[in-house]
């Protein structure tokens, strides 16, 4: 399947999605959103695909934000009537239950940082730079920056980033808990694919429920989260993959998963 603004490749059980508008530093416009929704829908529906990686083309940017040129002349009424930006969270976060990783090469600013934060985790290259510079344009984050960044790095850093618009480099992002790992720029894709392949090799239902449980930690009380954790644990003990996983451990061999 070919798209106007992204590249999509299936590599074994991993779908690699590359934001591909390098001339605009992979800025996110309406076409990127439409292409991403379609690609993520196919990833979610394809039983052979178990994890995805999203990265940016070129070595300069993951995505330098929502497309400012597309938004500049839009009226406030249009932004509101279209519930502008809602598609990203509604389609990429709420619909997608399989794990996916953002591999951030270069700038992840504004909407770019926000899409990276929609991923289950971020692997950054040493050259990555994160920022929510919307304040400089007279606006505020619109795709989760003020909420997901604050949950990821805490109030002090999130306020600093949103109020000054300054960028955070990869080392600071790792120290602050925004990214899970920092790797050399020339190893980024290799490392992200390796992580995705590791996830894709896990029992799929267990991977999906682990994702759901960690996400729940941001949505609910500790008591409710702990109950849900026990229930999902108990549900997983009823799967064929649990029986196989424990048998394979005892027999000192890799498990062979059925996804049920
Ligand atoms: N949207 C559209 N085009 C962009 C964007 C963007 N977000 N970022 C870069 N580009 C384009 C540039 O216009 C330029 O195109 P051209 O060659 O045609 O002039 C090309 O990409 C290369 O960029 P630069 O020449 O600027 O490259 P530099 O290396 O000099 O600078 C920077 C790189 C620092 C990343 C710089 O491009 C920059 O500051 N970009 C904008 C970052 C930003 O502000 N992002 C947040 C966008 S807003 C958002 O995501 C939330 C919604 C806010 C609503 C706003 C309503 C108006």
UniProtKB/TrEMBL annotation:
Keywords: Lyase. Belongs to the enoyl-CoA hydratase/isomerase family. The lineage of its organism: Bacteria, Pseudomonadati, Pseudomonadota, Alphaproteobacteria, Sphingomonadales. Transmembrane segments: none annotated. It comes from Novosphingobium beihaiensis. This is Enoyl-CoA hydratase-related protein. It holds the Pfam family ECH_1. It comes from the Bacteria.
């Amino acid at each position: 399947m070919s798209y106007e603004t992204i590249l999509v490749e299936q590599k074994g059980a991993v779908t690699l999605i590359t934001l591909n508008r390098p001339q605009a530093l992979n800025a996110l416009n309406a076409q990127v959103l439409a292409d991403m929704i379609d690609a993520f829908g196919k990833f979610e529906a394809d039983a052979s695909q178990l994890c995805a990686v999203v990265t940016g083309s070129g070595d300069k940017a993951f995505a330098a934000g929502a497309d400012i040129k597309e938004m500049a002349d839009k009226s406030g009424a249009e932004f509101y009537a279209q519930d502008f930006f809602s598609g990203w969270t509604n389609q990429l976060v709420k619909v997608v239950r399989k794990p996916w990783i953002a591999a951030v090469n270069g700038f992840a600013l504004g909407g770019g940082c926000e899409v990276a934060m929609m991923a289950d985790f971020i692997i950054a290259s040493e050259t990555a730079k994160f920022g929510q510079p919307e304040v400089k344009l007279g606006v505020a984050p619109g795709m989760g920056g003020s909420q997901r960044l604050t949950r990821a790095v805490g109030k002090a850093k999130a306020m600093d980033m949103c109020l000054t618009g300054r960028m955070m480099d990869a080392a600071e992002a790792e120290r602050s808990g925004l990214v899970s790992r920092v790797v050399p720029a020339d190893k980024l894709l290799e490392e992200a694919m390796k992580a995705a392949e590791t996830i894709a090799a896990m029992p799929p239902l267990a991977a999906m429920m682990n994702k759901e449980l960690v996400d729940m930690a941001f949505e609910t009380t500790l008591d409710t989260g702990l109950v849900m954790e026990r229930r999902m644990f108990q549900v997983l003990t009823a799967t064929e993959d649990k029986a196989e996983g424990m048998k394979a451990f005892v027999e000192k061999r890799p498990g062979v998963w059925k996804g049920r």
